[in-house]
Design brief:
Sodium/glucose cotransporter; mainly alpha
């Protein structure tokens, strides 16, 4: 591709700017670990929320979402529940508040508030660190794959995708190391603005170039219908025959079964709480528990522009590149749709802004992931086990080194990965299968102990890796129940064959976090000491708010997509649903949030 010098100048200016920001905030970030990894817990919730959304607006995920919308049509809008995207609703309704009440630095440190500092507590904390680092490296390899493919299409130099990925990761690492959470949040805000402008611009181009009539001629019957029956019932034979093979390869033809599995998995993952990554770090960085709920809520709103980009790129590709994709036959590469569309439809000058925005999407996810991973190495390994009494300056210096190590590990894993989709599927379905059982039980069952947590996590991680190595043809979604069962058995057996946690630890957790669930024996002991203590009776209200919140979030997704494809009737119905659910959540969620 021939890229204009103006576009290169815009991209170069952007890259220089983010590095300069890192230098500017390095002194403030370097005060101590709290400042470096949580911004001193002084950042406003809405800034953290926008930054969190920016971190989720990753280029690799965008390429995957374009693929599922292209192939599966509007039915594909249900597939992001694989992550699951609606975990943000569980967080905003109640889980973020529970997490923030702990007032700790990392997810592993949070474990100590639940299981104490005995042998079981220490083992459970170590297992969280292992999981966090494995998942962080997995996400970085996922980002490595996406940015390498993307950059190799646009930049004029004769470099391999892997070399481009190494260079761009290296540049991003500079400002992450220097500025910590301050640098991450500030640059994420800048990146979000660029991304929003880029997304709206691509959506506008798509609407002006692709009419509803043109779109109807390049998609199969049912492509524009979000609802589905027992089977997918999308036949691409007359348009791009190889797409049918891809659907069969994905294993999603029986869509109702797949949807039920996705929903089952998604609910379990959501009630387990966030994984120990940047999402949890942003929750812990808020100033108080109530603000953590608002921070999680604004994320879904801030992701709306992303769907303008996804829908715009998809229909441009459908309208103008279907013939080229059909000609590829079985070698069709959907991961190259996004670069192809931008290459062919964006004029010089504006291309630089869009490329800077898409680079920002990569950098935003990358910086937040590295920052969260380094926190575990320094706070939960080095500080806890190697040097408990070091100076703040020493800890911050180790944070620089830890960030560098994580980036190197991510690059190595990226070089070994086969494709974006392979890595994504393993992370969201395989690895998270091992995370689910112990992290559900930790919230809702008082008898669950640190030994149960440790063995549940370790068996889950080992099972996920074994399924990947020995059953490569079994999809990650199908392997999830087996990994879940193995992990759950480890949790229950280990807990019931060892002593319960110390009563003081359980009472302190119950009084501080105030979860609902199976806590009756502990509740009775707390009431004996403090008769005025009130149990959390919000279970039914929380679950109702979660259900309404998922509908609210889904309406935010479909509105921009319906607008881009110009299905105005469906769009206005969705707007009405958005208004009704927003009013409901205002009265039954926001107005009833506790101040503490």
């Amino acid at each position: 591709m021939q890229i204009h010098v103006i576009d290169l100048a815009i991209i170069g200016a952007y890259l220089v700017l983010v590095v300069v920001i890192g230098f500017m905030v390095s002194r403030r970030a370097g005060q101590n670990l709290d400042s470096y990894f949580l911004g001193g817990k002084t950042l406003p919730w809405y800034l953290l929320g926008v930054a969190n959304a920016s971190s989720m607006f990753d280029i690799t995920g965008t390429m995957w979402l374009v693929y599922i919308l292209f192939v599966y049509g509007l039915k594909g809008l249900w597939l992001p529940w694989l992550w699951p995207t609606f975990n943000q609703i569980f967080l905003m309704i109640y889980l973020a508040v529970w997490i923030r009440r702990s007032n700790v630095l990392t997810g592993a440190e949070w474990i100590t508030t639940r299981f104490g500092s005995g042998k079981g507590g220490e083992l459970s904390r170590i297992s969280v660190v292992i999981f966090a680092l494995v998942s962080v490296v997995g996400f970085l390899s996922y980002a490595f794959q996406g940015i390498g493919k993307f950059a190799s299409v646009f930049f004029p130099w004769d470099l391999s995708p892997n070399m481009y990925a190494v260079i761009l990761m290296g540049i991003t690492t500079i400002y992450i190391i220097l500025g910590g959470m301050y640098s991450v949040v500030i640059t994420d805000l800048l990146q979000f603005v660029i991304l929003a402008i880029a997304s709206l611009f691509i959506g506008f181009i798509a609407m002006t170039k692709v009419s509803p009539d043109l779109l109807s001629h390049v998609v199969p019957d049912g492509w524009g219908n979000i609802f589905f029956g027992w089977k997918l019932n999308l036949d691409w034979s007359a348009l791009i025959p190889s797409v049918n093979s891809r659907i069969a390869q994905d294993g999603w033809s029986f869509f109702t079964i797949i949807f039920m599995m996705i929903l089952f998995k998604g609910i379990l993952l959501s009630v387990a709480g966030p994984a120990p990554n940047y999402d949890m770090q942003r929750i812990l960085a808020t100033r108080k528990p109530k603000e953590s709920a608002f921070m999680s809520g604004i994320v879904s709103i801030c992701l709306v522009p992303r769907w303008f980009m996804i829908a715009g790129i998809t229909i441009l590709a459908l309208a103008f590149s279907s013939d080229k994709l059909a000609a590829m036959g079985d070698k069709i590469d959907f991961e190259m749709i996004l670069p192809y569309v931008i290459n062919n439809f964006i004029p010089a000058g504006l291309l630089g802004l869009l490329l800077a925005g898409l680079l920002a999407a990569f950098m935003s996810t990358f910086d937040a992931t590295v920052n969260s991973g380094a926190a575990y190495i320094v706070n939960d390994i080095y500080k806890r086990y190697c040097n408990k009494n070091a100076s703040d300056r020493k800890y911050v210096s180790m944070s620089y080194f830890a960030s560098f190590l994580i980036v190197i590990a991510g690059m190595i894993a990226g070089l070994k990965a086969n494709s974006i989709n392979t890595v994504m599927q393993w992370i969201v379905s395989g690895l998270w299968g091992g995370y689910t059982a112990p992290n559900v039980l930790k919230w809702y069952w008082w008898r669950f102990n640190g030994f149960g947590y440790f063995w549940g996590m370790i068996l889950g991680i080992v099972a996920a890796i074994c399924f990947l190595l020995f059953f490569p043809n079994l999809s990650a979604l199908n392997s999830f129940p087996f990994i879940l069962i193995i992990s759950a058995i480890g949790c229950v057996v280990a807990s019931l064959t060892t002593k319960a946690e110390e009563e003081s630890v359980l009472k302190n957790f119950y009084k501080t976090v105030r979860p609902w669930g199976f806590w009756q024996p502990i509740h009775e002991k707390v009431v004996q000491e403090n008769p005025a203590f009130q149990r959390n009776k919000a279970f039914k209200r929380d679950m109702l708010n979660v259900a309404v919140g998922i509908v609210w979030q889904m309406s935010l997704v479909v509105i921009p997509v319906y607008l881009i494809i110009r299905n105005m009737k469906a769009m206005w119905i969705s707007v009405f649903i958005l208004i009704v659910t927003s009013v409901f959540l205002k009265k039954n969620w926001i107005d009833k949030l506790e101040e503490d």
